[in-house]
Amino acid sequence: MGIFLLEALATTKLYLAGNMYGASGFARLAACVLFFGLFVAFWILSHRVVIKDGVLTYTVLLARRKSIRLEDIASAKFEVGGSREANRYKPFIRITIKPKRGSGAAPIDINAKVLEFADINLLLTTINGPEPPAKAHQPRVKSTTT
To answer: What CA–CA distance (Å, rounded) separates 146 from 80?
Structure first.
């Protein structure tokens, strides 16, 4: 929310500055749209998830870097939405990393909307290990032939 408020203020300032220097309406609008597009692209490209030397680090533009050691992670889950009050400020589509009790690390919510699906699978496999193979489907209908 704060990023978009900052963007709105910067775009409004750019629009008013164009008005002061006699720029046409189209030039001001084009400058604002270009500025907004570049900012959003830079924000999306600034998301980084790095696993190096046994430490997972998550970095986002205008936010502090969050790190956790892999051996301190209890679980990692892919989550969508949430109706509780606590989920209000979390990303809607996210990877939630919960630390082990007593590790002193804080939980990390990674915004999954800006990651590719293959990267999400790789991250979850790295943390949780490979998934067990799916069981073959067994029909529940009993045979009535004798």
So the answer is: 49
Which residues of the chain fall short of a pLDDT of 50? Answer: 1
62-85 per-position pLDDT tens digit: 778 899 998 999 988 888 887 677
Per the listing, tokens 């969050």 go with: 66
Question: What pTM does this model have?
Answer: 0.65
- 143: number of Cβ within 10 Å: 6
**Tokens read off for 98:** 């919960």
48-128 architecture in CATH?
A: Roll (2.30)
Helix (H) / strand (E) containing 67: strand 66-69
Break the chain into its structural domains and give their ranges: 2-45, 48-128
- Report in angstroms the alpha-carbon separations of 66 from 26, 46, 51, 90, 112: 42, 14, 12, 15, 15
